[in-house]
Amino acid sequence: MQHRHNAATSDLTTHRLEKSRGQRAVWLLEELGLEYELKVFKRDENFRAGADLGAVHPLKRSPVVGITPAGSDKEIILAESATIVDYVSEHFGKQLIPQRYPEGKEGVLGAETEEFMRHRVSLAFFGDGVSQQLTIHSSSWTTRKAAFSQFS
Ligand SMILES: N[C@@H](CCC(=O)N[C@@H](CS)C(=O)NCC(=O)O)C(=O)O
Known about the structure:
- It is built from five helices and four strands.
- It is α+β, with helices and mostly antiparallel strands.
- The protein has a single domain, classed as Glutaredoxin.
- A four-stranded mixed β-sheet has the order 2-1-3-4, with helices on one face.
- The structure holds glutathione.
- The site of glutathione has 13 residues, from helix 4.
């Protein structure tokens, strides 16, 4: 896909730990055709993130996306896959978010569209549920490592 020039609105950086869910943010930014800087972090010999990722996210977790709005010198740091997808889609890819309410029902309790509610549940599920499934069904670090190698 050809990349959109978003430099006029913001600078984007994605911090991706190798063999990790960090790939999700890369997929998202690619899907939206955005320009971004990719920073890749190596795992150590115990398959853990190092202090370099800790400088970006105190819990040493990936993905992390940094956004510096045009004209600002302050970088917004986003963590957690679901939050990243939500925030980036809201600002750069509204087409990925289903309409929340039918016309004339804005803000009415229970009037949310089914598509919107499914979208919300999917975000939470992929942010957490899928990862938990991988962890539960992987009995050792070796199998866990193998399960994650598809995200290399
Ligand atoms: N709930 C977070 C989980 C992020 C997370 O745990 N990422 C893992 C990689 S898949 C990580 O950075 N681990 C660092 C480590 O294992 O040291 C999300 O979905 O973004």
